[in-house]
Amino acid sequence: MRRPSAAAYVRRVDLVEVRPQVHMFRFRIGQAYLWRDGADLTLIDAGDITSAAAIEDGVRAPGHTPGSIALHLPRHGVLFTGDAVASVERVMLGVFNVDRAEAAATFRRLAALVPRTVCFGHGDPLTEDAAAMMEAAANGG
């Protein structure tokens, strides 16, 4: 059986460790994440439905687009919000939403998951007080 292989070239400055299992690739606009589970690696392009199937069930996160998802790994306390929530200078509702009211409801549902680490489609991840910061921002704080 032939194992697939791939070469990737990433400058050190573009790869940031969020926590030991999660690394973030920074791009000019947005980012993607690399999840390590033992010897397995999965690339998570924030909110990509194919990534959700590779890790765990996705969480419906409509509002930004009707089919938006987030990825929640409750056993690890990690939430990947995709474009539903952003962290650009502060934690906030993502911009350019098809349905702003539905996006706000999604934000509150994601905050209620009480994650320890939150990785966004745009902005720096939360690694400390993540649940409290998500809840405060989701409720207008």
From TrEMBL:
InterPro entries: Metallo-B-lactamas, NDM-1-like, RibonucZ/Hydroxyglut_hydro. Residues 61-122 form the Metallo-beta-lactamase domain. Gene3D superfamilies: Ribonuclease Z/Hydroxyacylglutathione hydrolase-like. It comes from the Bacteria. SUPFAM superfamilies: Metallo-hydrolase/oxidoreductase. This is MBL-fold metallo-hydrolase superfamily. It comes from Streptomyces globisporus.
